[in-house]
């Protein structure tokens, strides 16, 4: 673990990504304690106030503090990205492993189903699911996880096809190990690094998808603060009150950039060729 962390943090961009992600996670966790105002409190007298010493990031059309809403909005983005990609990793990874291990017609059928899911752009598929089920947090997580199941199934299946022919897997079968034990005890540890690297990169995609769906009105219902919803609210006043869209946009940029940097660092640390092993 020490060698892994050392290889991962050897890249300066990875360190920057870890810092960005850590800051956003801390902001989300400590939002109830560091928010200067309640994100839902309206003060019409102070509506559309520019950034000042009282309202550091200004206020929106209802007089709500933008800084407080950005801090609380981080919670939605993190919950949606972690929950949706975690579910996609478990479901898609299991499907891909079983498909590659069993092979034959079962593998062909499963991969054809995955190809159908891959034929839809992730945003369009998420839009269809949320439009059918309704703009709720649970539905949003389900929609985004559904868009990521097929890529995880593909990334898990590919190495299983070669690993199931390796000598240690054949030895496990000869010793009478069950297929479940062979899959999850002997094969899974050998593909886990690839799946985790992809998960970190897809979390950035989940953040963008959640923000996009919120921007078009299919995210979490108002008045709950979400970064995409805040950008949508500020779109009509972009010339008169640009801070309404700029600051949540910067927050999305920081989180997506940080997750991509961490994903690149994980890839470098787990690749034997890049690590010099």
The number of helical runs is: 12
Cα gyration radius (Å):
22 Å
Q: What overall form do the CA principal axes indicate?
A: elongated
Overall mean confidence score, pLDDT: 86
Query: Could you name the ranges where pLDDT drops below 50 across 5 or more consecutive residues?
Result: none
Instruction: Find the count of extended strands (DSSP E, 2+ residues).
Output: 0
Largest sheet: none
Q: Report the end-to-end length measured between terminal Cα atoms.
A: 15 Å
Q: Beta fraction of the residues?
A: under 5%
Structural class: mainly alpha
Helicity level: over 70%
What is the chain-wise order of helices and strands? HHHHHHHHHHHH
What does this structure look like?
The protein is mainly α and 277 residues long. The protein contains 12 helices and no strands. α10 runs antiparallel to α11. The protein starts with a helix and ends with a helix. 40% of the residues are buried.
Short description:
The protein has twelve helices and no strands. With 277 residues, it is mainly α. The radius of gyration is 22 Å and the shape is elongated.
Strand-helix topology:
Layout: H1 2-9, H2 12-29, H3 31-34, H4 66-102, H5 104-118, H6 122-133, H7 137-163, H8 167-174, H9 179-215, H10 227-235, H11 243-270, H12 272-275
Helix pairs in contact: 1-11, 2-4, 2-11, 4-5, 4-7, 4-9, 4-11, 5-7, 6-7, 7-9, 8-9, 9-10, 9-11, 10-11
């Amino acid at each position: 673990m020490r060698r892994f962390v050392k290889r991962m943090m050897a890249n300066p961009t990875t360190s920057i990504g870890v810092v960005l992600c850590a800051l956003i996670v801390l902001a989300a966790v400590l939002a109830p304690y560091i928010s200067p105002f309640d994100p839902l409190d309206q003060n019409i007298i102070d509506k559309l106030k520019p950034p000042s010493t009282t309202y550091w990031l200004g206020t929106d059309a209802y007089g709500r503090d933008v800084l407080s809403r950005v801090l609380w909005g981080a919670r939605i983005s993190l919950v949606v990205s972690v929950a949706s990609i975690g579910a996609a990793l478990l479901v898609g990874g299991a499907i891909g492993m079983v498909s590659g291990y069993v092979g034959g017609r079962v593998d062909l059928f499963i991969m054809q189903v995955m190809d159908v899911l891959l034929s839809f752009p992730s945003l369009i598929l998420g839009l269809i699911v949320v439009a059918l089920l309704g703009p709720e947090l649970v539905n949003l997580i389900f929609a985004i996880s559904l868009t990521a199941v097929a890529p995880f199934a593909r990334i898990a299946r590919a190495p299983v096809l070669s690993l199931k022919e390796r000598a240690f897997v054949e030895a496990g079968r000869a010793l009478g190990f069950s297929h479940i034990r062979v899959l999850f005890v002997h094969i899974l540890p050998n593909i886990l690094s690839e799946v985790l690297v992809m998960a970190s990169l897809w979390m950035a995609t989940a953040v963008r998808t959640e923000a996009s769906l919120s921007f078009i009105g299919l995210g979490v219902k108002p008045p709950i603060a979400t970064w995409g919803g805040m950008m949508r609210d500020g779109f009509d006043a972009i010339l008169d009150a640009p801070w309404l869209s700029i600051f949540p946009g910067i927050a999305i940029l920081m989180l997506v950039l940080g997750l991509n940097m961490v994903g690149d660092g994980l890839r470098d640390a787990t690749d034997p060729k890049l690590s010099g092993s």
